[in-house]
Amino acid sequence: MERDLAEQRGWLDKGQMRDVIAVCQTMPGPLAVQVAIFIGYM
CB–CB of 3/13 below 8 Å? Predict the structure, then answer.
């Protein structure tokens, strides 16, 4: 997911992607789903 969104599409830089992952790790549920929802919200 990081490779696709940060490197290929350029939607986020690597620092932002790592921040999103860190925030989403505190939320309940599958991490990949939470990251996708958060990035869609952004």
Answer: no
